[in-house]
């Protein structure tokens, strides 16, 4: 039986050490300071943990996969810095701390985000220089590029901004979720599989699991925005309602939205049945993410 809370704490500490090691190589510039400020603010480290968990599920715990995990966290943190800017969600709080642009100014915050995105691909290139990792690194870079680009996260952010104040169809809200949140989360799982040498069939199963999980995760995130405090979330609560964001709870109500999340959670678990190995870890992670309180 997996003690998922203990596992998450240990992996978070491991990832934080790896992030710090990579950041220690940077110069002591103001931009680097802003990068460190946002990275060290904390967070669940969900995406890198999923990368390591997917690799572990397929039998690989090679420390080199930490490069892939760290690269994902660099991209995720960059997206949060930019998402908080006045031109985007105009947020004053992230991970329980003042947002990067409030501390360093908008210009430095933008540059810090750009630098983290660039650092992600430098980290992947270093991973590709390891023995036997070149081919896998190329595949992972392709996955990262698609997930973070205009056909993925950035495309979803653009749709999310455009949707503010509008009544959307359920299919339109789902598209936003799958792109803005789901694309990078799916990449985290799939790239863990690639780094572990997964077969095409295994990657398909992991991708299906992650797509359903990512959509359910965003629904729960939206529900928590309705019901939690800023202290609990580490960011402003009720922001979706204030900005008239298109969310599942706004369209379906909280009860139906939660049922939708639970249905997606079940579909995610079903996808794991196609893997020819134990999936207890990925199942436990999914349950923890869907039935979380913050």
Overall pLDDT = 91
Count of DSSP-assigned helices? 15
Q: How can the largest sheet be summarized?
A: 2 strands, antiparallel
Order of helices and strands: HHHHEEHHHHHHHHHHH
Give the amount of beta strand, in percent.
under 5%
Strands ordered across the widest β-sheet: 1-2
N- to C-terminal distance: 24 Å
Counting copies of identical and different chains, the oligomeric state is single chain
For the record, the CATH class is Mainly Alpha
**Structural class of the helix and strand makeup?**
mainly alpha
By DSSP, the count of extended strands is 2
The Rg value, from CA coordinates, equals: 18 Å
Can you tell me the CATH architecture?
Answer: Orthogonal Bundle
Write structural notes for this entry:
The chain has 294 residues and is an all-alpha fold. It has 15 helices and two strands. It has one domain: Farnesyl Diphosphate Synthase (Orthogonal Bundle), CATH 1.10.600. The protein has helices spanning 4-23, 30-39, 46-57, 65-83, 100-104, 106-128, 134-148, 153-163, 170-195, 200-227, 230-233, 239-242, 248-252, 254-272, 280-290, and strands at residues 93-94, 97-98. It has a two-stranded antiparallel ribbon. A hairpin with a 2-residue loop joins strand 1 (93-94) and strand 2 (97-98). Helix 3 packs antiparallel against helix 4 (65-83) and helix 10 runs antiparallel to helix 14. The chain starts with a helix and ends with a helix. The mean pLDDT is 91.
């Amino acid at each position: 039986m997996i003690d998922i809370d203990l596992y998450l704490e240990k992996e978070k500490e491991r990832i934080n050490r790896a992030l710090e090691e990579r950041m220690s190589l940077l110069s002591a510039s103001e931009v680097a300071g802003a990068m460190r400020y946002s990275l060290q603010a904390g967070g669940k480290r969900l995406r890198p943990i999923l990368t390591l968990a997917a690799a572990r599920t397929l039998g690989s715990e090679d420390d080199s996969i930490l490069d892939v995990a760290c690269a994902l966290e660099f991209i995720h943190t960059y997206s949060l810095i930019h998402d908080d800017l006045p031109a985007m969600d105009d947020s004053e709080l992230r991970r329980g701390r003042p947002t990067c642009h409030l501390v360093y100014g908008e210009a430095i915050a933008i540059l810090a985000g750009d630098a983290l995105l660039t650092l992600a691909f430098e980290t992947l290139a270093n991973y590709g220089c390891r023995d036997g990792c070149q081919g896998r690194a190329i595949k992972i870079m392709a996955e990262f590029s698609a997930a973070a680009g205009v056909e993925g996260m950035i495309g979803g952010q653009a749709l999310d901004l455009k949707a503010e104040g509008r009544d959307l169809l359920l299919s339109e809200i789902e598209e936003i979720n799958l792109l803005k949140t789901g694309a990078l989360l799916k990449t985290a799982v799939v790239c863990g599989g690639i780094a572990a040498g997964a077969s095409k069939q295994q990657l398909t199963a992991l991708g299906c699991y992650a797509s359903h999980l990512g959509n359910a995760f965003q629904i729960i995130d939206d529900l928590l925005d309705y019901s939690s405090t800023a202290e609990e979330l580490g960011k402003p609560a009720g922001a979706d309602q204030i900005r008239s964001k298109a969310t599942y709870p706004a369209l379906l109500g909280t009860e139906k939205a939660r049922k939708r999340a639970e249905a997606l959670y079940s579909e995610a678990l079903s996808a794991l049945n196609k893997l020819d190995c134990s999936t207890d870890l990925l199942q436990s992670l999914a349950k923890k993410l869907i039935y979380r309180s913050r």
